Amino acid sequence: MASINLSENLLVICSSQHINLFERQDSLLNYSFLSSFDITTIEVTLKGNKKKKTDQDKILCSSLSNNSKYLAVGTTSKLLLIFNLNENKELSQPFYCELIKAPTKICFLNNESVLVSNRFGSLFKFEISESKISEGVELLGHFSMLLDFCISPNGKFVLTADRDEKIRISRFPQAYVIEGFCFGHSSFVKSIAFYGDNKLISGGGDSIIYVWDLNLFKCISTSCKVSETAIRKVGVVKIVEGETSKEGIICLPDQSSSILLFSLNDQLQMTKLCSFNCSIQNEYIFDFAMDMARKTVLCVGKQGIYYFQPTTINLPSTAISELKFLQFSPPLNNFILNELNLCEDQLPLNSLYKIPLNGKNLEDYKNRKEEKLGEKKKKMLGEEEEN
């Protein structure tokens, strides 16, 4: 899986086993290559001088600090890697720590601490110094896989989304205090993002965008079903027309070559404004990121890096616009493009759907359960005989 991170002057593209770092030139839409790093070359020594192999490691998620000093990367071998980007912004050997489970998201809380969610349902906080990561502190836990999280604009709450169709609102950093839940999704919640100070948008396995009033923990608006696949990611952008702007909602459907743009009017009605499509056949957009002003969106796909800028608030619902290629000087080399093309999703969204336990599925489930219980009894009897 490929991911994209953007700061004021840096662009980071993570693809499979490589991290590629670019620097912005005279405009936001022109970048030059700085350095690359292969995570399989890292020599990892854990407690007790235990060596850990990284030759088959893959990147799962990544995050760039706001001051562009640190890059955090989570891997399939359950490692948290921290790269200290020096003044020359070169990628060198990272410092690291071992995670208890594979990470699902990494996000910098500030320039010196990072939050990491995992497949076990936990959210951890790690403190970072010049060349060291503190032991992680568990802030909260869900009974199912955590898929996304975010901190409220005022910094007082942490919101977490999981595979069990719910969004939890907890105090921060006293995350053991639960303020409430948002219920309404009929499948897993893959992505959440703040819309203003007191509203949240979400999307996931039911392919519907939800808008929540966080004062009431209540859904106040929904879109129609936006695609035949799950929603991979949602975000909030600025839609600009002249000197005025308003907030818009974007979503990336899974296994799609398009990003969809919606608006929310004063009556809380959601309207589709535009579909930003890639004209290349068999393209697959993995991820998107926005500039600080949220007026330009950069996307990484199997066949390149793209961008679009929402610049009008009066597009008809049938409007279609084209994703444009981001400019690189010199152009992206074939190695980067080939690795992007070979990227695979390490957590396919189709695997997150739950199989309803009814009819034949329920019968099969009971049979498997009886088989497991039988195997467990045999094992226990064997251990008793040995004793």
TrEMBL record:
It is found in: Nucleus. GO terms for biological process: tRNA (guanine-N7)-methylation. GO terms for cellular component: cytosol; nucleus; tRNA methyltransferase complex. WD repeats lie at residues 182-222. The keyword Hydrolase does not apply. It holds the Pfam family WD40. It comes from the Eukaryota. Forms a heterodimer with the catalytic subunit Mettl1. Interacts with mei-P26 and weakly interacts with bgcn; required for the function or formation of the mei-P26-bgcn-bam-sxl complex. Interacts with nanos; may be involved in mei-P26-dependent derepression of the BMP signaling pathway. Interacts with Myc; the interaction may be mediated by mei-P26 and may be involved in the regulation of ribosome biogenesis. Required for the formation of N(7)-methylguanine at position 46 (m7G46) in tRNA. In the complex, it is required to stabilize and induce conformational changes of the catalytic subunit. PANTHER family: TRNA (GUANINE-N(7)-)-METHYLTRANSFERASE NON-CATALYTIC SUBUNIT WDR4, WD40 REPEAT PROTEIN 4. This is tRNA (guanine-N(7)-)-methyltransferase non-catalytic subunit.
